Amino acid sequence: MGAHSGIEAITARIVERSKPHREAYIDRVRRAASRGPHRTTLSCGNLAHGFAVCSPAEKDALAGDVVPNLGIITSYNDMLSAHQPYETFPAIIREAARAAGGIAQVAGGVPAMCDGVTQGQPGMELSLFSRDAIAMSAGIGLSHNMFDAAVYLGICDKIVPGLVIAALSFGHLPAVFIPAGPMTTGLPNDEKSRIRQLYAEGKVGRAELLEAESKSYHGPGTCTFYGTANSNQMLMEIMGFHMPGASFVNPGTPLREALTREAVKRALAITALGNEFTPAGEMIDERSIVNGVVGLHATGGSTNHTMHIVAMARAAGIHLTWEDISELSDIVPLLARVYPNGLADVNHFHAAGGMGFLIRELLKTGMVHDDVRTVFGHGLEAYTVEAKLDEKGLVTRPTVPQTSGDPKVLAQIETPFQPTGGLKMLTGNIGKGVIKISAVKPERHIIEAPAIVFHDQQELQDAFKRGDLNRDFIAVVRFQGPQANGMPELHRLTPPLGVLQDRGFKVALLTDGRMSGASGKVPAAIHMTPEACDGGAIAKIQNGDMIRLDAVAGTLEVLVDAAEFEARLPAKADLSENEFGMGRELFAAFRRNVGRAEHGASVFS
């Protein structure tokens, strides 16, 4: 069936708003593509440098423009559990390319930091900016002008959005994203959260906490909760950058390797040298972006993507807004319960039917556009499958079953977990922000309480430990925006706020910083813009001001006389401690030039 009327209307609005930017972008992509494969334009010296380490046969092939050359952009490192499996991928990709009549070269590596390691640490202040640094790093790798297509090896939080921005900046090249998959299930995520809260209360020690964390994060692959990393994988599949069924297959399995080999073969097939040329910049359009947002709502995805998908869209000349995202949330039902908005992890989600089931259900009522291009071909219907191996070790794709393998994890669209999506925009006299409500109990969707103001997360931690927060309140944690200190995640605030909520107090968080893809049961109005450093009204809030957070109506107000609030001077903060150490001095130019959160918090726009 065609798209739902509301989905069509929002998509049409995005198309109209984006028209001048999108038309200019497509013109650039087509002009770049019209020049054809570029190796013949390189001087002999250029080309000699480009294939110096290749075999004689590969040199002969690359000297002309008849054999496709695949650029590999990798974010491999040994520290990220999700990215460690990529160590062996280049060899697999080169072998698969040769078997398919092509050549593959590692074009470049990009940085990949782990938010799990840097939570609450100075390095977290580089995290958001690493997205744009990754895009630039990938751009440097592809600037050698040696490639007919690119494959991107990335999984986690800022890495995939940065790679997408790069892929769309080189939109004349086909782009296939190759996942590595989630780690196997360890300690249940709700049990990990329980131990964290006990530690915050002083009821267990560091040894018990470390044991729990180590049992949860225990091997290769993405963390198993549904945070930004796994939201990335959902996005890449529903937007058509992945091969169907590829997102949530565990690392180190025969199916995982077979899917990688298949992706390489497909990347070579869709270059300009073949008959199915699929440049990334034309493949991804407004419908693809809307499908991504719908996927986020239907799965209760990461709040970080209210910035990332805006920045990704802009790289393709598409102007998506928070209003679009919020209106789509009012239409799209929640179909998945994966931690933190449920007890299951992504392995349970995949076993219940995974992406194939989800996409099939969304197509039933036109919640996603079927008439899109993907790396697999035309139409999203081709993704309503599950990937398996046949007796020859080749990938086969049977249609997903008609019923969910676990209705507590993955619902049919006729019986959703809730009629609306998991993300909501908030507006009011404090500015604009977003909230993830899929994991928040309905009785906590409206909180009215006095403000307690903090200028960093440690102040809140200290107040909790002193016993000063045993009451109803809304914690205002400001000067945490991109201009102030790079907009770190404030996930360390979850345990103390969760403890207070469990004690029966009405609590919420209001901040111009980020929370996390793991945002959970405490109401959190985040990404407030304009931020405190940008003259935002959040800097005018004082201790004791009554604040009303209404996630049902989508409003966020400080209940102070309008004239009095307007007349207040904004507070100032000493941010000198955020300017140096752990590489923060290297990102001063980013802090000076970054855009607002609602525009993607990017240095590019």
Keywords:
alpha/beta, 605 residues, 2 domains, 4-stranded parallel beta sheet, 16 strands, single chain, 12% strand, 22 helices, Glucose Oxidase, domain 1, 8-stranded mixed beta sheet, globular
If you had to describe this structure to a student in words, what would you say it looks like?
This protein has helices at residues 5-34, 44-50, 56-62, 89-99, 115-118, 127-142, 159-169, 189-200, 206-216, 228-238, 254-269, 280-283, 286-299, 305-315, 322-331, 346-351, 354-364, 457-466, 482-485, 494-502, 562-567, 588-593, and strands spanning 69-74, 103-109, 149-153, 175-177, 373-374, 377-378, 388-389, 395-396, 423-428, 431-436, 446-454, 473-477, 507-511, 524-529, 546-550, 555-558. The strands form 4 sheets. Strands 9-10-14-13-12-11-15-16 form an 8-stranded mixed β-sheet. It is an alpha/beta fold and 605 residues long. The chain has 2 domains: 5-35 and 67-184 and 219-396, no CATH class; 423-599, 3-Layer(bba) Sandwich (Glucose Oxidase, domain 1), CATH 3.50.30.80. The model has no long low-confidence stretch (mean pLDDT 93).
